[in-house]
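BUG-848 | component: ligand-complex export | severity: low

The export step for magnesium ion jobs runs without errors, but we want the raw record kept on the ticket for reference. Input record follows.
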Amino acid sequence: MTTLAVKRNEMAFCPGCSHGMVLERLSEAFDRMNLAPTDVCIVTDIGCVGISDRYLDCHTFHGLHGRSITYAEGIKRARPELTVVVLIGDGGCGIGTAHLVHAARRGIDINVIVFNNFNFGMTGGQHSSTTPVCAQTPTTPAGATDYPFDVCQTVGANGASYVGRFTAFDKDLPDRMEAALRAPGFSLLDTWELCVAYYAERNRLNRKTLTTLSDEMDLPLGELECRRRPQPPSLAVTATGNAVTKTAEPSIALSWAERTEFCVAGSAGQRILSAVGVIGRIAVAGGLYAAQSDDFPITVRRGHSVSNLILSRKAIVYTGVDRTDLLLVLTEDGVRRVKSWQALSTDTLVLAEASLNLPATGARIERIDRKTAEKLVGKTSAALALLSYAIVRGGWLDEDRFRTAAEFGVRGKYRDENLKAIDAGIGLARAGFELET
Amino acid sequence: MPENDLPTGRTIIARGGYAHKKGQDVMREFITGNQAIVRGAVRAGCNFVAGYPITPASSILTEVLRAFADGSGVVVQTEDEIAAIGQCIGASMAGAKVMTATSGPGISLYSENIGLAQMGEAPLVIVDCQRMGPATGGATATGDGDVMFARHVTSGSYPIPVLAATDATTAYRLAYEAFNIAERLRTPVILLSSKAIALTRQTVDLEKVQLSPCVERKAAAPDATFHPYKVDQPGGVPDFAPIGGSQRVRFTGSIHDEEGVLTIERDQIDAKLQRLNTKILAGSDALELVDEDLDDSAETLVISYGLADGAAREAVRQSRDCGAMVSHLTLYSLWPVPAKAIRRAVTPSIKRVIVPELNLGLYVEEIRKLLPGIDVMSIQRIDGGLIEPQRIVSAVTADSPCGCRCGGQSK
Ligand code: SF4
Ligand SMILES: [Mg+2]
């Protein structure tokens, strides 16, 4: 059963256009491989070749210009058993170059046939990225000055497993197509053609001169040696997956007053966001509602690092922090990032690293010593220790409840480290800081 | 000390993962809006995600990677956003339930392919984690500036259902519902989120969220001859057969007849394009997703969506605490405009409507069109900060019949 539904002369291409011929060759290759119409999906790009889908009796997908490769890759990933073939023009290879290169690089098993007639046939013969130097086109009236794009070398150097350049008139084209279809991984056939309406006529290109053009452009015909790549090591991703164990735990209900807003302001590298996250999770495990919103520059390893945490015994509908109850300031970056110093009232407790100069503010200020915390638990855990200190110091939780809730609510890889930091903070709250005055 | 409003029963702490346990156990978690979206998508049966990294949407991709690591789906990071949505459309037509997520710059690159999904009728869920302003804007700042863009995101201006999350819990629910709409109507659906939802961690109890029954696209009868775009009634949705299945499928972004073949016949063109419009609009009542908190004697109605909703809820509570009569309507579906729900919320005594938005005051114009003769006030903020509840409270209580001027301070 042939994949081609109509004869060449019934196709809408200009008489003498190579497109119909290449489609016949492709259908021959499918037949030889005994591929049923539903074993194949043809994805057509835009341009004259883009109307081919209606002549093909198989699954067809006709999408946007240059993007055929992307649909083909999606289809192949969803249906790996399907033979997926892209029919694309030289125009599509230009606008969709990135997709060609990266599909080849990923080694996705699709087969690309380039219907390369050196110009945009459908839009009136304008030059394309494969137009030879000196060629006459409506957009290169004085002759093309740019060198053509070597699509074969490009994909061959970037992971394609079978690449070849042929003319539409080559007798063995079906063999080449079969070889491409059978090759595992990405394959591409650059098939040189005649656009009789525009390019061929203006540039005296015919069946014979197609071959000499290859010499002139130094783009050899035939199969191309692809750069071999070693098999990449396969790295398994750890599945947290859909199968998950959930254990029933007794509830530790934390008592909590109304909505409380905490803000921790410091610098990148202090693990402020994770410290606040740890406290948030303890609160949630204790039956409270929490909302954590972070503020950091896009270059995460430098500059300020600010994290806001709202805790409440009722659902939190508004996640903005406008009335900070606790402001824990660890560094100069943090001081600068807090914009509301002037507006703060005695409702706000500020716990600030002793060495920092603070702007004028109406808030209650107490000093802390970051170094002490760092000595106890290390630089990366000091923020959590100081936040724990603050929670006890501010009277939001008493030592025992906090410790029990932490035992219950702190999970994960850093459990021990985090519990140690919380303990250190609770200890500091009892002992107080020795501050130089 | 007041009791926590914790439902009685055991607390079960979920440690990540995507299983969905039935039962009455409380399962509170502390997750971001992006994580919630992935939960909702997986719950809906999503099994294909392609994306390109962009703040603040990136963690959707990494979350999906973890969710699909057991082989339950395919996830791919592509060379750009165009390839991401392209692969999704290909996979969707091959039968996968697909999603892609990005921010404003990426939605811009999706634009042409959103039209393709529309024309070819490929179910597709698109998440827009909005950021502040045009172009690169503020990558780590928030806003709701894409509400009109989402409606008119592709050429032709044919309708696309658009939903808007207000927090992590609704992000979960709406991601799930977005799949149902996409599958039922074979259309792209846009889910709007925003940096302050995407990356804010909140307490959620996903088990308690009410979800509608899971919808799969209607499969074509396997024995009959398949006509890819044939419908049995004017506003209908064609039956689906996957590319790669036993029935030959034609998909195309060109104007086409029932067989999926390019057509120049005006009656066929008209039928197809009318149908793209009517299949969304004719059943638009079913697409209305709102939350009504109405007071029959209210003179003021607050209508909110997206990021402003949290502030609106808080403001309504505070205003009521100081005696104001106020109604509140939350819109979870923005397009088609949930006109019925909006009109229903305008009870006879309503004299004024307040619409807070994290943009230049965009959606308020839709509400004004719907409610001629009613004073519709716009509250806006565009600098990346949230609208404070206080601003809404002041607006609500300004003309309060009780003469309350406390601005909610008396609580
Ligand atoms: S314009 Fe050129 S490419 Fe198009 S059908 Fe005619 S000859 Fe073929
Ligand atoms: Mg061409």
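Assignee comment: Attached the raw record above. The radius of gyration of chain A is 34 Å.
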